[in-house]
Amino acid sequence: MKIELTLNGRKISVDILPGEYLIETLRKCNIHSVRRGCDTTNCGVCTILLDGKPVPSCSVLSAQADHHQITTIEGIAHEAEKLSTFFGKEGADQCGYCNPALALSVYALMKENPHPTSAEIDEYLIGNLCRCSGYKNQNKAIMAFLAEEARMEEQ
Amino acid sequence: MKVVNQKIPSIDGKSLMMGRIAYSDDFADSDSLVIKVLRSPHPFAKIVAIDVSSASTLPGVEIVLTYADFNRIPFTRAGQGYPEPSPHDKFVLDEYVRYIGDEVAIVAAVDEATAKQALKLINVEYQVMEPILDFETAYNNPIVLHPEPEIHEMFPIGFDPKKNVAAEYHMEIGDIETALKQCDVVVNETYYTQAQAHAMMEPHSCNARFDHLNRLVIYSSTQTPFHIRRIISQALEFPISRIRVIKPRVGGGFGGKQAVHGELIAASVTIRTGKPSKLVYTRKEVFESSYTRHPMRFDMRLGAMKDGTLKAIDCQVLSDTGAYGEHALTVFMVAGSKVLPLYNKVDSVRFGGKVVYTNHTPAGAFRGYGAIQGNFALESVIDVLCHKLQIDPVVFRQKNMMKEGESSPIFAIMGEGTEGTAMTMDTCKLDYCVKRGMELIGWKTKYPRQVISEDLVRGVGMAIAMQGSGIPLIDMGSAIIKLNDGGFYNLLVGATDIGQKSDTILAQICAEELETTIDKIIVTSSDTDLTPFDTGAYASSTTYVSGNAVVNAAKAMKLLLIEEAAKILKINKDKIIFDGSSFSDSEGKIKISLADLSNRLYYNENQKQLATTGSFVGHKSPPPFMAGFAEVEIDIKTGETSVINYVSVVDCGTTINPKLAQGQVEGGIVQGIGMALYEEVNVAKSGKLITNSFLSYKIPTRLEIKNLVTEFADSYEESGPFGAKSVAEIGIDTPPAAIMNAIYNAIGVRINVLPATPEKIWMGINKKEKKL
After folding, report:
1. Of chain B's two ends, which shows fewer C-beta atoms within 10 Å, N or C?
2. Looking at beta carbons, which residues of chain A come within 8 Å of B201?
3. Which of A33, A129, A137 sits opposite B699 (nearest CB)?
4. Is B202 touching A (CB cutoff 8 A)?
5. DSSP B175-207
6. CATH topology of domain A2-74
7. How far is Cα B498 from Cα A95, in angstroms, rounded to an integer?
8. Can you tell me the distance from the alpha carbon of B365 to that of B370, in angstroms, rounded to the nearest whole number?
C-alpha cells in the first residue's frame, strides 16, 4: 500500500508492506539517522518526532503515520549542530549511536518546556538510554544548550 | 602542552549527532541478502536430522546453510593475540548445540520477512540432552559439554574438556596455610557475581560483498578488525589476502565486540552466493547469543594482625564460561592479577581456580575483564576484616595498599595466559586518591551512617582499584603519518574507535608531537587494507599502546621534515627550528612554511612523498589506580536503595583529553552501579535467559544516576604518551564493592551475591540474615 508522509517538511509518497514499522520505512527512504536499538520500545535509539512528539519508530506502524508529519534529525539539523557543540564541550558524546534520537527528544522538550530544571530534563529523557556516558555530562550539555536557546529567543 | 591535556571536542561528535552515515548497517549494500539465524531452543542437544528442503525452495531464499556445509575447523571467537589463550572449541555450525540461542542454521533471503519465514520451514530433530545449568556442578560432571575430538588449546591453559574445564590456573607466593595460622584474625567469605550484559546501544552488525577486485569486503561493528580478518581466513579457509575488514563508527562495545559474532556467517553467505549480505542482531540475539560477563564464585580468606597489618590473601575462583571458552583463562586470571597487587605487603598470597563449561550463553570480554569481579570480592572482604578488627576501612587501606615506587611479585608471575612482566609502580597516586576522595564524600562526618528519617538511612563505603594499560609484550599498535601538499597530515592507525573517542585522542597526541592543531591531522582508523596493524580496542590499550606508536611515528616525521627543510634552506639540520607551521634558522631570518615545503616536495624539486611509521609494544603495563566512594540512601521499609553520591578520584597519568577521560570514568561508574544494584540476570529452569530485553534487563536510566564527582590525580607516567596511562576500564571496578560496603555501613546487611536488589536488602533487614 501507499502512504503519504510529510518527512522533514517535504511531502512524500511511499510504498509500505502491511505490518511495516516506521523505522523500516524511513531507512528505506535513506534516512539512516534513525538507528535500530531494541525493537521493543525500550531504548529510545529510534526516536523520531511524529507531529512534533517523540515516539519510538520501531513501534509505530507506518500505516498509522499516513498523512502525518515526521521529523528526523535531518529536519532539525541546525539545532542538532548547535546541541552537538555543547556535547563536545562537555565530552558528553561517546559512541554517538543514540545522539540523533536524543537530540530529537531534547528539541521536543524545548518546544514543550523551554526552561526545564535538571530533574525535568532527566525525567523527560528517561526513554533515551545511553550505555556510554554516565548521563551527567549529557545533562550539563543539555542545560547549557537550552539556556542559550532561551537567551536567543528572548533577544 | 597545547593540545594534549586540553578539553578539545571530539572530531566526530558533531557528524554523529547530525545522523550522518557512519555505522556498519549504514554501509550495507541496498541489495544485500538479509541473513537470519535459526537458533537452538534447547540448552544442550544433538541435531539428529535437519531438513531444509522447504526453506531452500521458498521463493526469495538464496541459501540455507547447516553444519553439514562446513568443514570441521575449530576456532575461538575471542579476538585476542595469536595464538589465543582461549581454547579452539567452536565451529561455525556444529551438530551439537550448547545453549539456548546457539546457531543451528543460516538463512539468507531477499528480505527479512522471507528469511524469517524460511526459518520456520526448517525442520530439526533434536536429541535433547540433560544440560549443566549450575556452574558449581560442572566440574567432573558425567555430562560432558565438549566431547568432540578436534577441539584443542593453543598452548597450555589447563584445558581439560572431559572434566568440563576450559582453563585452570594456580599460583602461591609464600605458604598460605602457615601465614593464615600466624594471623590474629582470619575472615572467610564467599561472593558471587552475575552474568552482566554489555547492552551497548548498537546491536552487533556486519555486512559483506565482493568488490571490483573480487575481494571480500566486510564492514563490521567490531573492536578487533585485524583479528576478524585472521579468524575469517582460518575458519573459512579463505585467503587472508582477499579479505578486507573495515570498522566504521561503532555504537559501543565494552568488550562485547571483542570477538567474531556475525562476521563468519555473513562471509560464508557472500563467499557461497557471490552476493552482498548483511546480518544485524536483534536485541534478543545480543542478550542471548553474543557474550556476557563471566559469572564467578570467590572463596576468600584474609588474615591480619590486631594492629591492622594484612598478612595473607587466599582467593579461589570458580568461573562460568558458558558454552564456549572464549576469554575463559584470561578473564579469570585478571580477577587475580589486576586485583591482588593492590595489597602488596602480605607474607603470602594464593590465587587459583577453574573456568568451567555450562549450557549458558557464552561469557567473554567485558570492561573490567575479571578485575571488577575480583575487586568486588577482595574489597568486600577487606571491609569484613576491618569490621572485625574495628579499624576504619580507609585507615586499613592506607596502611596496606600499594604505594608509588613499590612493586608486587604477582606482576612477574601472572600474565594473561603466559608469565607476567615484572614492574615497579613509577606512578601510583592511590594515597592522594584516597585522601581526596574522603574529602569529597565527607567521610569523616558521614562514616559509617546517617539516619535521615524514620525510614531513610544513608551510609558511605569505599573501594580502591587498579587496572592495566595494555598487555605487555603482546598488544601492539602502529601508526603511519603521511604529509600532504598544503602542509597537513593523514594519520593512519589500526587502533579501533568504538565510541571511546580514540581517533580524537590519537589526533591530539599526533598534533602535540608535531606542534600543530588537530584540524591538521586527518585520522583514518581500522581498515585492514589501509591502516597498519593494531591488536584492537581492548585491555585498556589504545591510549598507552597505540598512543605511543603515534608518538613514535610523529617523532620520525618531525626528523624527516627538518631534514628536508634543511636541504631546501641550505642550512645544517641541527640549526633548524620547527614550530609546527614553519622552519627557520636560529635567528628566524631564513624561513619556509610547512605548506610551502610540502608543495615544493610534491610539485617542484627533489620530489618525494614523506611518510613515517611508528610501532609500539609495551614492556610493562602501568596500572591506573582509583579510589571510589559511594554514598547510598536506603529506605528500610522497602529495601529500595539508590546511590546518591559517587566520588571517583583517578590516577590515569596525564589525561590526554580531560573531558573524554571523565566520560570514560563516569560511563564505567554507571555500568558498575548497574552491576551492583540493577542488572539482574534470570535464567529459567529450562536454561532460557529470561532477562533478554531492555524491559526485563534493567540498565541504569538517567533517573537512577544522582550525583557523580570525578577528579583526576596529578600524575605523569614516563613510559606513556605525554605521561598517560589508560582510563577505559578503571572506572567500572569499584562500584560493586564500594556500594556493598556502603549498604553494610548503613544497615548492617552484607550482600555477597550481586546485584543488591531491594528484595535482598529488605530480606536482610527483616530476616536479619547477614549474608545474602
Report:
1. N
2. 35, 37, 43, 45, 95, 97-98, 129-132
3. A129
4. yes
5. -HHHHHHT-SEEEEEEEEE-------SSPPEEE
6. Ubiquitin-like (UB roll) (3.10.20)
7. 6
8. 9
Grid coordinates representing B486 are 598544503
B234-284: pLDDT as tens digits: 999 999 999 999 999 999 999 999 999 999 999 999 999 999 999 999 999
Parallel/antiparallel/unpaired status of strands A47-50 and B521-525: unpaired
- Helix (H) or strand (E) holding A12, with range, is strand A10-15
B327 and A CB contact within 8 Å: no
Distance from CA of A22 to the nearest CA of B (A): 15
Cα separation of A46 and A72, whole Å? 10
Q: Which of B29, B678, B702 to mutate to test the interface with A (most CBs of A within 10 A)?
A: B702
Domain boundaries, chain A: 2-74, 76-154
Q: Do B12 and A96 touch (CB under 8 A)?
A: yes
| B2-14 pLDDT tens trace | 999 999 999 999 9
Complex ipTM > 0.85 = yes
* Beta-strand pair B96-97/B185-193: unpaired
Radius of gyration of chain A, Cα coordinates, nearest whole angstrom: 16
CB B676 within 8 A of CB B740: yes
Which domains does chain B possess?
A: 24-129+201-252+257-289 (3.90.1170.50), 296-471+620-767 (3.30.365.10), 476-617 (3.30.365.10)
Nearest to B722 by CA among B418, B505, B430, B478: B505
CATH of region A76-154: 1.10.150.120
Reading the block at residue B137, the C-alpha cell is 556442578
Answer yes or no: is pLDDT of B772 > 70: no
B481-519: pLDDT as tens digits: 999 999 999 999 999 999 999 999 999 999 999 999 999
Instruction: Tell me, yes or no, if B9 comes closer than 8 A to chain A by beta carbon.
Output: yes
Residue pLDDT, tens place only, B407-462: 999 999 998 777 899 999 999 999 999 999 999 999 999 999 999 999 999 999 99
List beta partners, residue B90: B75
Q: Determine how many CB atoms are found less than 10 A away from the CB of residue A15.
A: 11
* CB-based contact B130:B358 (threshold 8 Å): no
Burial class (CB in 10 A: 0-12, 13-18, 19+), B383: buried
CB within 8 A of B386, min separation 6: which ones?
B308, B392, B393, B396
Predicted pLDDT of residue B596: 97
DSSP string, B631-679: EEEEETTT--EEEEEEEEEEE-BS-SSHHHHHHHHHHHHHHHHIIIII-
CB B97 within 8 A of CB B47: yes
